[in-house]
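Now for one specimen:
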Amino acid sequence: MAARTTNPMLTWTTLSPAVALVALVLSWGRDLGTLPVVVIAVALAAAVLAAVHHAEVVAHRVGEPFGSLVLAVAVTIIEVALIVTLMISGGPETSSLARDTVFAAVMITCNGIVGLSLFMGARKFKLISFNAEGTGAALATVTTLAVLTMVVPTFTTGEPGPEFTPGQLAFAAVISLVLYGMFVSTQTIRHRDFFLPVGKEGQPLNDEHADPPSNKATYASLGLLLASLVAVVGLAKVESPAIESAVAAAGFPQSFVGVVIALLVLLPESIAAVRAAQRNRIQISLNLALGSAMASIGLTIPAIAIASIWLDGPLLLGLGSTQMVLLGLTVLVSVLTVVPGRATRLQGGVHLVLLAAFVFLAVNP
């Protein structure tokens, strides 16, 4: 009897993005009842899992660190589009949306994704190793971007409140693009070996477990990845009224909605990073985490700077005192984690505690 073959176009990973996009079109701009909200949530989860699958296909074809860069940039571009859209349509009350979203993304990536990856990797392999040179360079870039764009506005005096003058905002936008461009050049061209997975003794690891996919399969996965990410961000926006209602019913501040949306948008990277950690590819996990944080700042600030021409009201970018303490502690702990080039479950647990503190203080400011 001949073996049955499965049509590659009828697998759940190819159907989920299409179903999610259809759900997005049908639900966009409508008031949803309880059952449609549940259906949208299921479609959202399927789109997230599909995005992870197709990102891994593309990453396997192009190799590291390009694969991590594909997912980080794709998610961030759509995240930026969502932020700008909400700020333009939301009016002056969304003046701090960019700051809140970017800060949440930084805390989730640098503590949540990094912490969970380190913890899961060390739980399976005891002691895990990564390239301290590449990871340290990424952390330095993230720190510089975060401080110059979200801490400095709190202390400038050109405008009242935690905001830049137009000239200061233009400067912040330019240096964000310059720093991000320099890092991408370093990661992909000049010092690519700094961002490749390493073994316990620091030797590079090769992924020899399977042949890379064909160009046709790679292009198909790239298209499906972008479709999945559009669906994830769009459905997250559709779900936001239900999330807002749940947040209000729980008595949480409305700013917590931004944290929830950031968690949803970053789900694909989080799952991909944990999967890499469970294969002892911790460097890939760190590339995803820090690359996402860097792209979130480096692409969002220039986009917001351009969009501010049409935005009404102030653009608040400066962090509050509690947020600055959390950011400073995150940077300090991250440096101590990165310097040895090795980590155990303890380092992962410390980062996860910092994430828990961020979420708790977002609920109880």
Remarks:
- The first strand starts at residue 128 and ends at 129.
- The chain has one domain: 15-23+31-363.
- The domain at 15-23+31-363 is CATH 1.20.1420.30 (A middle domain of Talin 1).
